[in-house]
Amino acid sequence: MTNNNLESLSALLDDEVNQSEIEQTMDVLGDEQTATFGRYGLIGDVLRNEQQLVTDNAFSMSIQAAIEGLEQDAGLESSVASDSVVAISTHPKWHQRITGKVKSFTSSSTGKGMGQMAIAASVALVAVFGVSNMAPQNNLMPSPVLNTTPLIDGISPVSTDGLKAKPSANQVTQTRINALMADHNQQLRVAEDEELDKDKEENDN
Amino acid sequence: MVPLFSFSFTTYFNRIFVAAKSSIICLFLLFTSTAFSSPAIPTDIAATTEKVNAAFWLSKLRMALTQTNFEAGIVTLKGEKTESFQWVHGVEESTGTEVERVSPLIGGGVMTIRKGDTVTFVEPNKEPYSVKSTSIRSFIPPVFYKNAAQLINSYQFVLVSKSQIAGRSAQLIRIESVSKHAYNYWIWIDVLSGLPLRLAFVDEVGDVKEQVLMTHLTLHKEPAPEITKLFEFSTPPATEALIAQRQETNNWNMSWLPNGFKLIKSDRHHVSISREVSDYYLYSDGLVEVSIYVQRPLESFNGPLVLRDGATSFAMVHANGFDVTVVGKVPEEIAVKIASSVKAVQQP
Prior knowledge:
The complex is a heterodimer.
Chain A: H1 3-13, H2 19-28, H3 31-47, H4 57-74, H5 85-90, H6 94-107, H7 112-132, H8 134-139, H9 161-164, H10 169-204
Helix pairs in contact in A: 1-2, 1-3, 6-7
Chain B: H1 9-37, H2 44-49, H3 54-67, E1 69-78, E2 81-91, E3 98-104, E4 111-115, E5 118-122, E6 129-132, E7 155-165, E8 168-177, E9 184-190, E10 196-202, E11 208-220, H4 225-232, E12 252-254, E13 262-270, E14 277-284, E15 289-295, E16 305-309, E17 312-318, E18 323-328, H5 332-341, E19 342-344
Antiparallel strand pairs in B: 1-2, 1-11, 2-3, 3-4, 4-5, 5-6, 7-8, 8-9, 9-10, 10-11, 12-19, 13-14, 14-15, 15-18, 16-17, 17-18
Subcellular location (chain B): Periplasm
Organism (chain B): Psychrosphaera algicola
Domain MucB/RseB N-terminal (chain B): 54-223
């Protein structure tokens, strides 16, 4: 595995290669390069938020198996859910737990080799779930405390003297306007009465 | 179970037959209904075959207003104000008396009942009273209950195209002021019943100032039970005492009046609310009325005051030693012009 190979893989993913380069890259592709290609793709997906969960079961299962083994070793009750990585992440203090476990695991004589891988895996987990958990966390934001302080401090007193004042010029005019409007309508009601009388008189004459 | 949508030939033909049969029944009903309604409106058949004029429609309107049993919803739009009424009309069968009632849909207003030529006003917290009149003036100018042809001196009649109102076919007739001194009056007449579906005061540029809309209309062959009840309901008789005694005043001279306006009455009376004394003149051009009040001057009032409510204008001007107020359904500038034209008659 050389840097050159990885460079061409990266370029392939970024769609920055021409046809001949694709063929050239494909030719030299070994098992390890294929796996690297897969990981690059996964990283890209996660960064672009196109991948919600790590779907590589083998990878997560191996971590779970390691942690389960540890818990039994330490004689602790198995409180960590073992179904999936997601279940681990839902535990309130999951990352402290894992860090603790991993540390004790690395200090033990049996798992020095596995330790490094576990640390790397936990970093990857934090990265993956850090991204995928961002949105749900927004929903769980505590709602702001209801503001119970009124916006207006109080009702200010007003003078009622104005109501007792003499009717103003406008009020006199207003009264006349209302009176005349009402009288006009009243007159119309009896207008036809007059007309009928008039018609009658004309007919009589 | 027989499938709902079977396409066997027998059922298919059956359906065509049924459809044909029902359309024949429909046609038959149409013919019979025309035959039944023709005695009431003699020129009904002519309407569909001949070229008809505005006079035909106006006579049809008058017939419908006085002879039909109907129930209608009415909305009046006046400036920003909207009012709604229920309007029931019928002819009491035993006596042939016309009975109608206009009541506000929202309580508290004036209910008007007409029996023949007596109109009764029923208001909350007031004694009901009656006057002599052959029409309820709520929506329709009284001239449409009489002979609309008397408007011919001041208005011209224009028969316009038909349109749809409340889902019914309506014939529009524009009654246009010849002198432009009054508003134009547009009336949409229901083609089938002859009743008015929409009435509007329209100014010179075509803006609607005030309008009346029929929101629903139900026609009955028989008068509604309500009509019989109203007929039996006792209303106070029309009293002469309500009307101010005719004391024609000759103190004032109107030097200008719009074309076609004639004096209906003049008197001196106490204005109903303020109890102010006023010399009063009522003029009409047959379609609309104008009141002229001449009163002692208000100390605080100097300048002319012009107000408008829908089509009703209110103009008050201060003249030499008196105030003149003109109220009526005429354009504001006309009201002001009438008010300004009032002069004191020089007493010898």
